Amino acid sequence: MTPTITVSRWLDLLQSAGCRVTAPRRAIVELMVGTSRALGPIEVYDLGRTEHPGLGLVTVYRTLEKLEELGLIERVHLPDGCHRYLRTADGHQHLLLCTTCGLVQTFAGDDLDPLTGKVASDTGFAINEHWLQFFGTCPNCRKPISTLSES
Amino acid sequence: MTPTITVSRWLDLLQSAGCRVTAPRRAIVELMVGTSRALGPIEVYDLGRTEHPGLGLVTVYRTLEKLEELGLIERVHLPDGCHRYLRTADGHQHLLLCTTCGLVQTFAGDDLDPLTGKVASDTGFAINEHWLQFFGTCPNCRKPISTLSES
DNA sequence: TTGTAATTGAAAATCATTTTCAATACAAGG
DNA sequence: CCTTGTATTGAAAATGATTTTCAATTACAA
User: Fold this and answer.
1) What is the secondary structure of A78-137 as a DSSP string?
2) What tens digit of pLDDT does each residue of B6-30 get?
């Protein structure tokens, strides 16, 4: 699905949820659909104002909250904080995060179901969620000097 | 190692690091050594004042910071936040966390090295850290009414 | 069009965390 | 023991992030 179609789909979903489609929301949706980096509120605010100069930080908070409610974006946890958002991947995915630029990739990992079952029966916990995440430096950020190409 | 001995060891390590051993620090150390739950600053503050009534929240922040520097405690990330601390486990461990009470258990998991290597070569990332965490409800919190026994 | 309720952004309020600072208390040396 | 220098303490103030309030604006259904 192309980014443009995804933007339309997100805006339709917003509308179906009883929200109005406004210029600030469109700007934020385009941003979140178009990036593979985990962005914090301030980053969304700064990037969003290039497209919609009057954008307010309050609107960023409110829109991110709404998109999270709709399951379109989700919070990403990194070693240094948990206030960044990323568009939700299809199905459950494991994450690989660049701790320098925030770039996120997903990868198909081991099937954790057997381990989950074993740990559950060993401990008596009812397990209902798991995280498998790798952290490192993406190819772009590993290059010391060479030309930059944005994702 | 018994809790008492661990408390002494932590206080010795603090002293070796050039810190003085004071009553507030002793109270916080005893708390962090003695619990298997991930505690946030406010919880440490409230629990700590039962033992040292004059304890200030500022001192909690400062002491937790110092214990983290010494590697005795570390930040734990949960779906709803990342501001809780837990004493560091021996060696690298995977975590199983109770989302109701904050109880943490460690478990020996799969060896992730092969997967790490595969993902690294597939993506070009330099991977230097990973998280494997399970979330759920611990046996105690699953009991609806019955008698409570604190860990 | 027009009316109305949702939405906006600025300002104020709130909450967590950090900094400042004068008073206190640890611990080394007499 | 006592003295002394310095690290530490807790209160208050400062900071920074997030949330709430509110009057003006705007989307969109009729």
Assistant:
1) ETTEEEEEEEPPSSS-EEEEETTT-BEEEE-----HHHHHHHHHHH--EEEEEEEEEEEE
2) 999 999 999 999 999 999 999 999 9
**Strand D nucleotides within 7 Å of a protein CB:** 7-12, 17-21, 26-28
- Taking the Cβ of residue B144 and every Cβ of chain A, the question of whether any pair is shorter than 8 Å is answered with no
Parse chain B into domains and list their residue ranges.
1-88, 92-151
CB contact under 8 A, A142 and B124: yes
Select B1-88's CATH number: 2.60.15.10, 1.10.10.10, 3.40.50.11600, 3.90.480.10.
1.10.10.10
User: What is the length of chain B?
Assistant: 151
Q: What is the pLDDT of residues A80-138, one digit of tens each?
A: 888 999 999 887 789 999 999 999 999 987 788 999 999 999 999 999 999 999 999 99
CA of B21 to C1' of C26 (A): 8
- Write the CATH number of the domain with boundaries B92-151: 3.30.1490.190
